Amino acid sequence: xxxxxxxxxxxxxxxxxxxxxxxxxxxxxxxxxxxxxxxxxxxxxxxxxxxxxxxxxxxxxxxxxxxxxxxxxxxxxxxxxxxxxxxxxxxxxxxxxxxxxxxxxxxxxxxxxxxxxxxxxxxxxxxxxxxxxxxxxxxxxxxxxxxxxxxxxxxxxxxxxxxxxxxxxxxxxxxxxxxxxxxxxxxxxxxxxxxxxxxxxxxxxxxxxxxxxxxxxxxxxxxxxxxxxxxxxxxxxxxxxxxxxxxxxxxxxxxxxxxxxxxxxxxxxxxxxxxxxxxxxxxxxxxxxxxxxxxxxxxxxxxxxxxxxxxxxxxxxxxxxxxxxxxxxxxxxxxxxxxxxxxxxxxxxxxxxxxxxxxxxxxxxxxxxxxxxxxxxxxxxxxxxxxxxxxxxxxxxxxxxxxxxxxxxxxxxxxxxxxxxxxxxxxxxxxxxxxxxxxxxxxxxxxxxxxxxxxxxxxxxxxxxxxxxxxxxxxxxxxxxxxxx
Length: 485
What we know:
It is globular and about 60 Å long. The strands form two sheets. Strands 1, 3, 4, 5, 6, 7, 8, 9, 10, 11, 14, 15, 16 and 17 form a 14-stranded mixed sheet that branches. Strands 2-12-13 form a three-stranded antiparallel sheet, with helices on one face. The relative contact order is 0.19. The chain folds into two domains: about 20-275, Aminopeptidase; about 280-465, Aminopeptidase (3-Layer(aba) Sandwich). α8 crosses α9. With about 475 residues, the protein is α+β, with helices and mostly antiparallel strands. The two termini are about 25 Å apart. It contains ten helices and 17 strands. GO terms for molecular function: glycylpeptide N-tetradecanoyltransferase activity. Its EC number is 2.3.1.97. Belongs to the NMT family. This is Glycylpeptide N-tetradecanoyltransferase. Keywords: Acyltransferase, Transferase.
């Protein structure tokens, strides 16, 4: 498997340079050359939308430098992170040293779990929107409105991410955006856009959605920041930093001060380091479009045979999830996620939103105990497996126009072993025309991916908490039960 070069990125938007969350660092995909890196570059760059916000944030914009609380000395933590990520942390992080995040040279385990920043109230938050350059104005994007969600879709599809070789461009569908931006409790004023006053053209966008995250046993209201995008021609206008401050202000006005976010670059200081793995479902197409390459001494026919899957799932009683399953799935999912050190907690309404099947957006299947079983388990939901869809446009290819990727979402093994559940998901994805199946090595995945013919990616995805200190970090990937879009 060939390694690919990672893209360089600034550490964060700051007053010292143009914010570039839209063009961050990508992790390399396995066995794929620089072209294969494109799809994962897009995935990681999407996560970089959260990077500059510190996800949800601090008061009215400026905070004191607060020592971190990592699990050991600064040099020891730096060495551990460097070993996991193959990236040596910088000695200084000018922007992040001003934010309430754990620092590499913090006080270690001596500090208790809890908020880093000094307590604030909604009354401390700036009441007026931050000023924009004269030719621009703030707007709220109503993603319930077909015309407005199309504007967001077009902005992202043309300006969000593209690989170095201009072969692939990440392509969120309109349906995906509506799903991703409208969970229970979403706020329209957290879907923040910037328009040109004269033309009314949407030229920038950033969003926040609510989530309940459990960190080391403490349940916290947070936000996830995503889809930070500035039109390519306007990145010298310094819109991104003010957008980050504005979304932070709006979230703080709702009395939310913590967040979880991910990035493909090393910043102060990861809660955990995870890695993407990739499984070919349509190897012929992946090779034809340059996403992957034929391995030495392998023919196309042998490669196709190697990755061939069974025609049907192996699990009896596996069926698509129904909305009426949501309370049972929520109980099963939360019970499973409670074993991990960082995880999301779901209400039944949230489960219905995030996991109810939507064509080409999200697929979820449950295992229902047979009626012939014991009276205590008859009809009970025992297992869950899900994946969501993030395609990329294939640029300049005479035949193929789209790379269809499935990403493993929340999955709970119960009566069925995890390897069988995951293979069933791949069988179902392949039958629906997906080309590749991706999964992080979090939760229990790490132990089963290799046997299922996944290839390990070269790059890593770091998880971070904003304004919340947890002792003993960084955790291992198997300690993470949180999946961010």
